[in-house]
Protein backbone atom coordinates (compact mmCIF):
# COMPACT_ATOMS: atom_id res chain seq x y z
CA UNK A 1 0.00 0.00 0.00
CA UNK A 2 1.21 3.49 -0.85
CA UNK A 3 -0.03 6.20 1.50
CA UNK A 4 0.50 8.97 -1.01
CA UNK A 5 -1.10 7.11 -3.90
CA UNK A 6 -4.10 5.86 -1.91
CA UNK A 7 -4.59 8.85 0.39
CA UNK A 8 -7.74 10.14 -1.29
CA UNK A 9 -9.50 6.83 -2.00
CA UNK A 10 -12.70 6.76 0.06
CA UNK A 11 -14.38 3.42 -0.58
CA UNK A 12 -14.15 0.00 -2.22
CA UNK A 13 -15.80 1.11 -5.47
CA UNK A 14 -13.19 3.82 -6.01
CA UNK A 15 -10.40 1.38 -5.12
CA UNK A 16 -11.62 -1.21 -7.61
CA UNK A 17 -12.00 1.35 -10.39
CA UNK A 18 -8.49 2.67 -9.80
CA UNK A 19 -7.03 -0.83 -9.63
CA UNK A 20 -8.26 -1.43 -13.17
CA UNK A 21 -7.04 1.94 -14.37
CA UNK A 22 -3.61 1.40 -12.83
CA UNK A 23 -3.19 -1.72 -14.94
CA UNK A 24 -4.00 0.32 -18.03
CA UNK A 25 -1.76 3.20 -16.94
CA UNK A 26 1.18 0.80 -16.55
CA UNK A 27 0.72 -0.34 -20.15
CA UNK A 28 0.32 3.25 -21.33
CA UNK A 29 3.62 4.09 -19.63
CA UNK A 30 5.38 1.38 -21.63
CA UNK A 31 4.07 2.82 -24.90
CA UNK A 32 4.60 6.47 -23.99
CA UNK A 33 8.27 6.76 -25.07
CA UNK A 34 7.52 5.60 -28.62
CA UNK A 35 4.50 7.89 -29.04
CA UNK A 36 6.47 10.77 -27.57
CA UNK A 37 9.40 10.16 -29.90
CA UNK A 38 7.21 9.85 -33.01
CA UNK A 39 4.52 12.33 -32.06
CA UNK A 40 2.03 9.57 -32.88
CA UNK A 41 -1.46 9.21 -31.50
CA UNK A 42 -1.98 6.35 -28.99
CA UNK A 43 -4.97 4.71 -30.67
CA UNK A 44 -4.33 1.49 -28.75
CA UNK A 45 -4.63 3.30 -25.40
CA UNK A 46 -8.06 4.63 -26.29
CA UNK A 47 -9.08 1.23 -27.61
CA UNK A 48 -8.33 -0.22 -24.18
CA UNK A 49 -10.16 2.62 -22.44
CA UNK A 50 -13.16 1.97 -24.68
CA UNK A 51 -13.09 -1.78 -24.11
CA UNK A 52 -12.85 -1.23 -20.37
CA UNK A 53 -15.99 0.91 -20.40
CA UNK A 54 -14.14 3.99 -19.19
CA UNK A 55 -15.41 6.34 -21.92
CA UNK A 56 -18.81 6.32 -20.22
CA UNK A 57 -17.56 7.17 -16.72
CA UNK A 58 -19.27 10.58 -16.59
CA UNK A 59 -22.32 9.65 -18.68
CA UNK A 60 -25.55 9.80 -16.61
CA UNK A 61 -26.77 6.48 -15.24
CA UNK A 62 -30.06 7.06 -17.06
CA UNK A 63 -28.17 6.57 -20.33
CA UNK A 64 -26.06 3.63 -19.21
CA UNK A 65 -23.08 5.47 -17.75
CA UNK A 66 -21.48 5.45 -14.30
CA UNK A 67 -22.19 9.13 -13.55
CA UNK A 68 -19.03 9.53 -11.47
CA UNK A 69 -18.48 12.68 -9.43
CA UNK A 70 -15.88 15.37 -10.03
CA UNK A 71 -13.86 13.98 -7.13
CA UNK A 72 -13.79 10.58 -8.81
CA UNK A 73 -12.90 12.18 -12.15
CA UNK A 74 -9.88 13.76 -10.46
CA UNK A 75 -8.86 10.32 -9.15
CA UNK A 76 -9.14 8.84 -12.64
CA UNK A 77 -7.14 11.61 -14.27
CA UNK A 78 -4.38 11.50 -11.69
CA UNK A 79 -4.10 7.75 -12.15
CA UNK A 80 -3.88 7.95 -15.94
CA UNK A 81 -1.48 10.90 -15.79
CA UNK A 82 0.89 8.70 -13.82
CA UNK A 83 1.07 6.43 -16.84
CA UNK A 84 0.98 8.80 -19.80
CA UNK A 85 0.24 12.50 -19.63
CA UNK A 86 -0.83 12.81 -23.27
CA UNK A 87 -3.42 10.05 -23.00
CA UNK A 88 -4.71 11.40 -19.71
CA UNK A 89 -5.09 14.96 -20.97
CA UNK A 90 -6.93 13.87 -24.11
CA UNK A 91 -9.17 11.50 -22.18
CA UNK A 92 -9.88 14.24 -19.65
CA UNK A 93 -11.27 16.57 -22.29
CA UNK A 94 -13.78 13.87 -23.23
CA UNK A 95 -15.00 12.81 -19.80
CA UNK A 96 -14.78 16.40 -18.56
CA UNK A 97 -16.98 17.70 -21.37
CA UNK A 98 -19.60 15.04 -20.61
CA UNK A 99 -19.56 15.97 -16.93
CA UNK A 100 -20.09 19.61 -17.85
CA UNK A 101 -22.98 18.80 -20.19
CA UNK A 102 -24.51 16.62 -17.49
CA UNK A 103 -24.39 19.26 -14.78
CA UNK A 104 -25.20 22.36 -16.83
CA UNK A 105 -27.89 21.05 -19.16
CA UNK A 106 -26.20 23.11 -21.85
CA UNK A 107 -27.29 20.88 -24.73
CA UNK A 108 -30.89 20.13 -25.71
CA UNK A 109 -31.78 16.88 -23.96
CA UNK A 110 -32.42 14.96 -27.19
CA UNK A 111 -28.99 15.89 -28.56
CA UNK A 112 -27.27 15.02 -25.28
CA UNK A 113 -29.15 11.73 -25.02
CA UNK A 114 -28.04 10.73 -28.53
CA UNK A 115 -24.42 11.50 -27.70
CA UNK A 116 -24.56 9.54 -24.43
CA UNK A 117 -26.13 6.54 -26.12
CA UNK A 118 -23.44 6.56 -28.81
CA UNK A 119 -20.73 6.74 -26.13
CA UNK A 120 -22.18 3.74 -24.31
CA UNK A 121 -22.98 1.64 -27.39
CA UNK A 122 -20.27 2.63 -29.85
CA UNK A 123 -17.51 4.20 -27.78
CA UNK A 124 -17.99 7.66 -29.28
CA UNK A 125 -15.93 10.54 -27.92
CA UNK A 126 -16.30 14.33 -27.93
CA UNK A 127 -14.29 17.51 -27.60
CA UNK A 128 -14.74 21.21 -28.33
CA UNK A 129 -12.45 22.88 -30.87
CA UNK A 130 -12.39 26.57 -30.11
CA UNK A 131 -8.78 27.71 -30.50
CA UNK A 132 -7.59 29.52 -33.62
CA UNK A 133 -4.22 30.98 -34.57
CA UNK A 134 -5.68 34.47 -34.84
CA UNK A 135 -7.55 34.46 -31.55
CA UNK A 136 -5.46 32.38 -29.17
CA UNK A 137 -7.12 30.64 -26.26
CA UNK A 138 -10.94 30.82 -26.26
CA UNK A 139 -10.78 31.51 -22.52
CA UNK A 140 -9.46 35.00 -23.32
CA UNK A 141 -12.57 35.93 -25.27
CA UNK A 142 -11.29 36.09 -28.83
CA UNK A 143 -13.96 35.99 -31.53
CA UNK A 144 -13.61 33.01 -33.90
CA UNK A 145 -12.75 33.65 -37.54
CA UNK A 146 -14.59 30.42 -38.34
CA UNK A 147 -17.98 31.30 -39.79
CA UNK A 148 -21.34 29.54 -39.94
CA UNK A 149 -23.67 30.48 -42.80
CA UNK A 150 -27.29 29.44 -43.09
CA UNK A 151 -28.24 26.81 -45.64
CA UNK A 152 -31.23 24.56 -46.22
CA UNK A 153 -31.73 22.46 -43.09
CA UNK A 154 -28.81 23.84 -41.16
CA UNK A 155 -25.45 25.57 -41.44
CA UNK A 156 -22.29 25.49 -43.52
CA UNK A 157 -19.19 26.02 -41.41
CA UNK A 158 -15.78 27.11 -42.69
CA UNK A 159 -12.61 27.82 -40.77
CA UNK A 160 -9.46 26.38 -39.23
CA UNK A 161 -9.12 25.24 -35.62
CA UNK A 162 -5.84 24.75 -33.76
CA UNK A 163 -5.04 22.73 -30.61
CA UNK A 164 -7.71 20.22 -31.65
CA UNK A 165 -6.93 17.54 -29.07
CA UNK A 166 -8.17 14.03 -29.92
CA UNK A 167 -8.75 15.06 -33.56
CA UNK A 168 -7.35 11.80 -35.01
CA UNK A 169 -9.96 9.68 -33.23
CA UNK A 170 -13.14 11.76 -33.15
CA UNK A 171 -16.05 11.19 -35.51
CA UNK A 172 -17.81 14.28 -34.13
CA UNK A 173 -16.81 17.42 -32.30
CA UNK A 174 -18.08 20.87 -31.35
CA UNK A 175 -16.72 24.01 -33.00
CA UNK A 176 -17.21 27.67 -32.20
CA UNK A 177 -18.17 29.88 -35.12
CA UNK A 178 -19.29 33.43 -35.81
CA UNK A 179 -22.58 34.08 -37.60
CA UNK A 180 -21.97 36.82 -40.22
CA UNK A 181 -25.64 37.76 -40.22
CA UNK A 182 -25.52 39.26 -36.74
CA UNK A 183 -21.95 38.83 -35.45
CA UNK A 184 -22.97 36.45 -32.67
CA UNK A 185 -20.94 33.38 -31.70
CA UNK A 186 -22.40 29.89 -31.37
CA UNK A 187 -21.28 26.32 -30.95
CA UNK A 188 -22.11 23.66 -33.52
CA UNK A 189 -21.93 19.89 -33.36
CA UNK A 190 -20.16 18.72 -36.50
CA UNK A 191 -19.72 15.15 -37.74
CA UNK A 192 -16.58 14.21 -39.63
CA UNK A 193 -17.06 14.24 -43.39
CA UNK A 194 -15.20 14.96 -46.63
CA UNK A 195 -15.60 18.64 -45.78
CA UNK A 196 -13.48 18.18 -42.64
CA UNK A 197 -9.74 17.81 -43.09
CA UNK A 198 -7.10 16.95 -40.50
CA UNK A 199 -3.79 18.77 -41.02
CA UNK A 200 -1.06 17.09 -38.96
CA UNK A 201 0.63 20.15 -37.51
CA UNK A 202 1.15 18.97 -33.93
CA UNK A 203 4.92 18.87 -33.32
CA UNK A 204 5.59 20.26 -29.88
CA UNK A 205 8.04 20.04 -27.01
CA UNK A 206 5.61 18.31 -24.67
CA UNK A 207 2.30 16.43 -24.71
CA UNK A 208 3.37 15.19 -28.13
CA UNK A 209 0.81 12.38 -28.34
CA UNK A 210 -2.44 14.31 -27.78
CA UNK A 211 -3.20 14.54 -31.49
CA UNK A 212 -3.87 18.29 -31.18
CA UNK A 213 -3.59 18.94 -34.91
CA UNK A 214 -5.31 21.61 -36.97
CA UNK A 215 -8.82 20.85 -38.24
CA UNK A 216 -9.98 22.61 -41.39
CA UNK A 217 -13.69 22.88 -42.16
CA UNK A 218 -14.66 23.66 -45.75
CA UNK A 219 -18.40 24.26 -45.70
CA UNK A 220 -18.92 21.39 -43.28
CA UNK A 221 -22.62 20.80 -42.66
CA UNK A 222 -24.26 21.06 -39.26
CA UNK A 223 -27.98 20.35 -38.96
CA UNK A 224 -30.36 22.99 -37.68
CA UNK A 225 -30.71 21.23 -34.32
CA UNK A 226 -26.92 20.92 -34.03
CA UNK A 227 -26.56 24.60 -33.17
CA UNK A 228 -26.08 24.92 -29.42
CA UNK A 229 -27.36 28.27 -28.24
CA UNK A 230 -27.85 27.79 -24.50
CA UNK A 231 -25.29 28.14 -21.74
CA UNK A 232 -27.19 26.08 -19.18
CA UNK A 233 -26.75 26.26 -15.44
CA UNK A 234 -23.58 27.95 -14.21
CA UNK A 235 -21.50 25.24 -12.55
CA UNK A 236 -18.28 27.23 -12.20
CA UNK A 237 -16.57 25.03 -14.82
CA UNK A 238 -15.57 22.49 -12.22
CA UNK A 239 -14.91 19.95 -14.97
CA UNK A 240 -11.67 21.78 -15.80
CA UNK A 241 -10.09 20.13 -12.75
CA UNK A 242 -9.35 17.26 -15.13
CA UNK A 243 -6.37 19.38 -16.21
CA UNK A 244 -4.49 19.82 -12.91
CA UNK A 245 -5.36 16.23 -11.97
CA UNK A 246 -3.47 15.03 -15.03
CA UNK A 247 -0.41 17.08 -14.07
CA UNK A 248 -0.59 15.87 -10.49
CA UNK A 249 -0.34 12.35 -11.88
CA UNK A 250 2.75 13.24 -13.92
CA UNK A 251 4.36 14.81 -10.84
CA UNK A 252 3.55 11.68 -8.83
CA UNK A 253 5.29 9.55 -11.46
CA UNK A 254 8.37 11.79 -11.30
CA UNK A 255 8.38 11.61 -7.53
CA UNK A 256 8.09 7.81 -7.57
CA UNK A 257 10.97 7.50 -10.03
CA UNK A 258 13.24 9.79 -8.03
CA UNK A 259 12.48 8.15 -4.68
CA UNK A 260 13.13 4.70 -6.13
CA UNK A 261 16.36 5.93 -7.67
CA UNK A 262 17.50 7.50 -4.39
CA UNK A 263 16.70 4.26 -2.56
CA UNK A 264 18.62 1.99 -4.92
CA UNK A 265 21.47 3.95 -6.50
CA UNK A 266 24.80 3.56 -4.70
CA UNK A 267 27.79 5.17 -6.42
CA UNK A 268 31.18 3.69 -5.55
CA UNK A 269 32.03 6.86 -3.65
CA UNK A 270 29.40 6.12 -0.99
CA UNK A 271 28.82 3.25 1.45
CA UNK A 272 25.06 3.27 0.78
CA UNK A 273 22.36 4.65 -1.53
CA UNK A 274 22.16 8.38 -2.15
CA UNK A 275 18.87 8.44 -0.28
CA UNK A 276 20.92 8.39 2.92
CA UNK A 277 22.49 11.77 2.11
CA UNK A 278 20.97 14.71 4.02
CA UNK A 279 20.82 16.91 0.90
CA UNK A 280 18.94 14.28 -1.07
CA UNK A 281 16.58 13.65 1.84
CA UNK A 282 15.83 17.37 1.97
CA UNK A 283 14.93 17.32 -1.72
CA UNK A 284 12.69 14.30 -1.26
CA UNK A 285 10.99 16.02 1.66
CA UNK A 286 10.46 19.12 -0.46
CA UNK A 287 8.88 16.99 -3.21
CA UNK A 288 6.51 15.48 -0.67
CA UNK A 289 5.56 18.88 0.70
CA UNK A 290 4.89 20.29 -2.78
CA UNK A 291 2.86 17.30 -3.90
CA UNK A 292 0.83 16.86 -0.72
CA UNK A 293 -0.04 20.55 -0.56
CA UNK A 294 -1.16 20.58 -4.20
CA UNK A 295 -3.24 17.42 -3.93
CA UNK A 296 -4.99 18.56 -0.76
CA UNK A 297 -6.14 21.71 -2.52
CA UNK A 298 -7.18 19.77 -5.63
CA UNK A 299 -9.28 17.19 -3.80
CA UNK A 300 -10.78 19.77 -1.45
CA UNK A 301 -11.98 21.83 -4.41
CA UNK A 302 -13.46 18.78 -6.13
CA UNK A 303 -15.21 17.61 -2.98
CA UNK A 304 -16.67 21.05 -2.26
CA UNK A 305 -17.95 21.27 -5.84
CA UNK A 306 -19.62 17.86 -5.49
CA UNK A 307 -21.12 18.37 -2.04
CA UNK A 308 -22.29 21.98 -2.34
CA UNK A 309 -23.88 22.58 -5.76
CA UNK A 310 -25.22 25.94 -4.58
CA UNK A 311 -21.64 27.24 -4.33
CA UNK A 312 -20.57 26.20 -7.83
CA UNK A 313 -21.25 29.54 -9.56
CA UNK A 314 -18.98 31.22 -6.99
CA UNK A 315 -16.14 28.69 -7.08
CA UNK A 316 -14.12 29.88 -10.08
CA UNK A 317 -11.44 31.43 -7.92
CA UNK A 318 -11.11 28.31 -5.77
CA UNK A 319 -11.04 26.03 -8.80
CA UNK A 320 -8.60 28.30 -10.61
CA UNK A 321 -6.35 28.43 -7.57
CA UNK A 322 -6.32 24.63 -7.43
CA UNK A 323 -5.20 24.51 -11.06
CA UNK A 324 -2.55 27.19 -10.48
CA UNK A 325 -1.10 25.57 -7.36
CA UNK A 326 -1.16 22.00 -8.70
CA UNK A 327 0.45 22.89 -12.02
CA UNK A 328 3.21 25.04 -10.55
CA UNK A 329 3.92 22.64 -7.70
CA UNK A 330 4.05 19.82 -10.24
CA UNK A 331 6.71 21.77 -12.15
CA UNK A 332 8.73 22.06 -8.93
CA UNK A 333 8.34 18.35 -8.16
CA UNK A 334 9.66 17.30 -11.56
CA UNK A 335 12.55 19.75 -11.25
CA UNK A 336 13.46 18.36 -7.83
CA UNK A 337 13.20 14.80 -9.13
CA UNK A 338 15.68 15.61 -11.89
CA UNK A 339 18.07 17.23 -9.43
CA UNK A 340 17.96 14.10 -7.27
CA UNK A 341 18.68 11.79 -10.20
CA UNK A 342 21.30 14.14 -11.65
CA UNK A 343 22.57 14.32 -15.21
CA UNK A 344 21.16 10.88 -15.98
CA UNK A 345 17.69 12.45 -15.82
CA UNK A 346 18.37 14.12 -19.18
CA UNK A 347 18.59 10.78 -20.93
CA UNK A 348 15.73 9.86 -23.24
CA UNK A 349 16.03 6.29 -22.02
CA UNK A 350 14.48 7.50 -18.75
CA UNK A 351 11.04 9.10 -18.36
CA UNK A 352 12.03 12.19 -16.37
CA UNK A 353 12.91 14.37 -19.33
CA UNK A 354 9.51 13.56 -20.87
CA UNK A 355 7.77 14.41 -17.60
CA UNK A 356 9.66 17.70 -17.60
CA UNK A 357 8.48 18.55 -21.11
CA UNK A 358 4.90 17.37 -20.57
CA UNK A 359 4.45 19.16 -17.28
CA UNK A 360 5.20 22.55 -18.81
CA UNK A 361 2.14 22.29 -21.04
CA UNK A 362 0.02 22.86 -17.94
CA UNK A 363 1.02 26.52 -17.94
CA UNK A 364 -0.93 27.00 -21.16
CA UNK A 365 -4.08 25.09 -20.25
CA UNK A 366 -7.00 27.12 -18.88
CA UNK A 367 -7.27 28.97 -16.66
CA UNK A 368 -3.85 30.60 -17.12
CA UNK A 369 -1.94 31.84 -14.08
CA UNK A 370 -2.40 35.54 -14.74
CA UNK A 371 -6.15 35.12 -15.13
CA UNK A 372 -6.35 33.28 -11.81
CA UNK A 373 -4.36 36.03 -10.08
CA UNK A 374 -6.63 38.67 -11.59
CA UNK A 375 -9.73 36.85 -10.36
CA UNK A 376 -8.30 36.46 -6.85
CA UNK A 377 -7.35 40.15 -6.76
CA UNK A 378 -10.78 41.17 -7.99
CA UNK A 379 -12.48 39.20 -5.22
CA UNK A 380 -10.17 40.59 -2.55
CA UNK A 381 -10.71 44.18 -3.68
CA UNK A 382 -14.49 43.66 -3.94
CA UNK A 383 -14.47 42.38 -0.37
CA UNK A 384 -12.73 45.54 0.82
CA UNK A 385 -15.21 47.69 -1.10
CA UNK A 386 -18.11 45.94 0.61
CA UNK A 387 -16.56 46.56 4.02
CA UNK A 388 -15.95 50.24 3.36
Automatic annotation (TrEMBL):
SUPFAM superfamilies: Acyl-CoA dehydrogenase C-terminal domain-like, Acyl-CoA dehydrogenase NM domain-like. The keyword Cell wall biogenesis/degradation does not apply. Residues 245-361 form the Acyl-CoA dehydrogenase/oxidase C-terminal domain. It comes from the Bacteria. InterPro entries: Acyl-CoA_Oxase/DH_mid-dom, Acyl-CoA_Oxase/DH_mid-dom_sf, AcylCo_DH-like_C, AcylCo_DH/oxidase_C, AcylCoA_DH/ox_N, AcylCoA_DH/ox_N_sf, AcylCoA_DH/oxidase_NM_dom_sf. Residues 21-98 form the Acyl-CoA dehydrogenase/oxidase N-terminal domain. Residues 131-219 form the Acyl-CoA oxidase/dehydrogenase middle domain. The keyword Zinc-finger does not apply. Keywords: FAD, Flavoprotein, Oxidoreductase. Gene3D superfamilies: Acyl-CoA dehydrogenase/oxidase, N-terminal domain (1.10.540.10), Butyryl-CoA Dehydrogenase, subunit A, domain 2 (2.40.110.10), Butyryl-CoA Dehydrogenase, subunit A, domain 3 (1.20.140.10). GO terms for molecular function: acyl-CoA dehydrogenase activity; flavin adenine dinucleotide binding. Its cofactor is FAD. Belongs to the acyl-CoA dehydrogenase family. This is Acyl-CoA/acyl-ACP dehydrogenase. The lineage of its organism: Bacteria, Bacillati, Bacillota, Bacilli, Bacillales.
